[in-house]
Every structure is written in C-alpha cells, then in structure tokens.
Write a structure and sequence with these properties.
This protein has eleven helices and 18 strands. Helix 4 runs parallel beside helix 5. The chain is α/β, with parallel strands linked by helices and 404 residues long. Helix content is 26%, strand content 27%. One of its GO terms (biological process) is lipid metabolic process. GO terms for molecular function: phosphoric diester hydrolase activity. InterPro entries: PLC-like_Pdiesterase_TIM-brl (IPR017946).
Length: 404
C-alpha cells in the first residue's frame, strides 16, 4: 500500500491535483482466477484562496468535492463557509470549505534531508538549503560498533564514529545545520546499544556544537527494549517513535520514559514518497497533542510533491523529511510573500539553539597582598605579633600566630 502510494507522489503536479491512495484488490471470476483492480480513493486537497483576507484557503478539489467543516478544525483553523464553487472550480458532488488562520504563528522549522548516510550527501543537503539531516544507524555485533547504513542486507559498514568526526568538522564551519535525526534501526542483541549511541553522538558531535538531536526508533516494540536503558536526556535532545499510527500510545510511552531536560517527538510517513490518509490523520492528532504539551516536535517523512509539503505545513509540523531540500525551500520562500499561505515558518539555525554569550565584563583586579614586614632586634612587630625566622629573614606574623 505504501509503495503504491509513492507512485502517485512522483507524478507531475497539476493545478487541480488531488490526494489519492491506491489499493490493489484481487477477486475471482468465472474462468479468470485472479484480476487485479486498481482503485483510486481521493481525499480533500488544499488550494490557496484568492486573498479575500490574509490566512484563507479552500479545502476540496473539483469535480468530486468531499470536504467538511471538520477538515478545517482538525487542522487547527477556523471554518468560514462552504459552497460548491469556492475558488473557481465547481463541484459536481459535495462542497468545498473555506478555512481561515486569522492569527498565523511564526514558528521554527526544519528542512530535514533524508538518508544522508555519507559525507557527500551531507554537503549536498546543506548546499540545497537543509538545516537538518537524517542518518540511519545500525548496531552490528560483528563490527563491534555502529554503522551509518539503512539496509540490513548491505554488507558494507560506514563506521559511525569517524563519520561523526568528519561531520563535526563540516558543522563547525556552518551555523546552518541545526538538527540531526538518528534513525536507530536495530540493536543486534546489545540491549545497551541505544545508550551507547547517545553517548557517542554527544561526545563526537553535539556537546561542543549546540546541535539539536532526535534519536528515533520505528516501533514501540523496539523502543520498549532500548529506550528505558538510555538514561536522562539533556536540553536539545529528544526521543521519537516515527512509524506508529497511534500518537496517543507514543505520547503515553514517552511520558514515562523521557527524563531530564529532554523532549518528546513524534513522526510518521511512508517508505516511498507517498501520502495515505491514516498518515495525515496521525500527524494531525500529534500536532494537537503537541499543543497540549505532550510532544515538543512533530515531523513527517518523506515528501516529494509541493502540494504535500504545503498541506503538512498548514497542519503545523515542525519538520519535513525530503529527498530534495530545494523544493521545500522554494515552498517556504514563496509562502513568505503569500499572506494566504497560513504557515508562517522560520528556518532555525544553530545560532538560535546556542545560548548567547554572557556580556563582557571588566575583571575586578585582585589586590596584591603586602609582603610581611621585617622585624628583628630593635624592630618589634607590635600588636602582640610574633617575630619569626622565615628562610634567611625575620618576619612579623599575623596576630595569634606563633613561631614553629
């Protein structure tokens, strides 16, 4: 299902594009044992309004419109009205709805480059405008350590520690890189692997750079095995589960797992760049939970179409994983000049994450103590102080001090 959804995501985008998910069904017919039927289910899409007032947009795509007021409220916007024509294309069935974000909120946002498991991919992502990167991490017992690899069947091992040291050098020369997402794939029998990974990333990369870090697993099952052993999190660190459709279950688990100054994050997406309605529903719910303080970061992966990017920006995600950061950067740049976009975001840099240095102050001079006065025959110390031999000199001692 997710693989087929990706096919649509790669199709050229038209002005009347609508969101579809494909399903394959098999049926038996007389003399025909198997017939594959390709069915397209369409969901409401968003289109910008012709600027009736700042922060308006229509949901619903002609000719078959199926939008409702809940499509506005579930995304955190106000419902204004509904009609068949809306932004110019008349509905044959159903209606479109007009939503409004009357007070768009400027928020920090991350363009996260997907699967940057090599240094050349990191450099390319930064050139293309990403301010975050995602790295796949596997623990391999035979390698006695971690590899920056996505696939379990890949026999090679891009050793993580040297990779992070080189990445440190790249990041040190640019404040653009503000976030690293490490997608933890497996522990290969090492129940402490998650904790070891956290320690390595702190030591080699984040502690001296002020770089934010999300450590994620794909499932609650894996998270239950490895996260409780990881210890307390520091400021700028977060745990995430990013392939579960139930954000409430994820929030409940992380609430009992994350300790210290760390944060809780949620992600969801598709194996291929595609959209499915349950993914969107889970992200909408996670954004609602974030507003309640149960998450601090919500992201979606991996988007290719600009329509998808605009929709999730309006929903209110904090980051989007993409294979081409330039496309998402263009969407955000255009939105800066479009008051009807309803998503006011600002790309965070590492300078935003690092506390400002304390103002310079003139150090208070430390007074130099006066040398003890000399004493001897005819030169008493007075005030009851003892005159003692120190080295080759006779020196007055502080009151109450005797010669030894």
């Amino acid at each position: 299902m997710r693989m087929l959804g990706g096919l649509l995501e790669q199709l050229p985008q038209s002005s009347d594009a609508f969101w579809c998910a494909f399903s394959m069904r098999s049926i038996k017919m007389r003399r025909i044992h198997l017939v594959l039927l390709l069915t397209c289910f369409c969901y409401p899409a968003m289109t910008a309004a012709p600027s009736a007032f700042a922060g308006e947009f229509w949901i619903g795509t002609a000719p078959f419109c199926s939008a409702s007021p809940q499509d506005c409220t579930q995304r955190g916007f106000d419902f204004v009205r509904s009609d068949k024509k809306g932004d110019g294309k008349r509905c044959v069935t159903g209606k479109k709805v007009l939503c409004a974000c009357t007070a768009p909120v400027l928020r920090q946002f991350y363009i996260i480059a997907h699967r940057t498991n090599a240094l050349d991919k990191v450099r390319a992502a930064l050139r293309q405008g990403a301010n975050g990167i995602e790295i796949d991490v596997r623990y391999r017992r035979r390698e006695q350590g971690f590899c920056a690899n996505h696939d379990s069947f890949d026999p090679s091992c891009n050793r993580l520690v040297p990779f992070l040291r080189e990445l440190n050098a790249i990041a040190s020369n640019s404040k653009q890189l503000a976030l690293i997402v490490l997608d933890f794939k497996n522990h290969d029998g090492n129940q402490n692997a998650f904790r070891e990974l956290l320690d390595i990333v702190r030591r080699e990369l984040t502690s001296n750079l002020g770089l934010k870090m999300i450590l994620s697993t794909g499932s609650l099952a894996l998270a239950r095995r490895v996260m409780p052993n990881a210890g307390a999190l520091r400021r700028g660190e977060a745990f995430s589960i990013d392939e579960e459709d139930d954000p409430d279950a994820v929030a409940n688990f992380l609430a009992g797992t994350v300790s210290g100054e760390g944060s809780k994050a949620y992600g969801n997406g598709t194996f291929e760049p595609g959209i499915e309605v349950h993914i969107q529903n889970s992200i909408q719910r996670a954004v609602s939970l974030r507003r309640q303080g149960q998450f601090q970061f919500v992201y979606v992966w991996t988007l290719a179409r600009t329509a998808s990017m605009r929709d999730y920006l309006r929903i209110g995600v904090d980051g989007i994983l993409v294979n081409d950061p330039r496309k998402l950067r263009d969407v955000i740049t255009l939105a800066e000049h479009d008051p009807s976009s309803c998503f006011n975001v600002r790309l965070e840099t590492r300078a935003d994450s690092v506390p400002a240095p304390a103002p310079a102050t003139t150090p208070t001079p430390i007074p130099t103590p006066e040398p003890p006065s000399s004493c001897g025959p005819g030169r008493p110390c007075g005030q009851g102080r003892a005159c003692c031999e120190v080295g080759d000199r006779m020196v007055c001692q502080p009151p109450g001090t005797s010669c030894r």
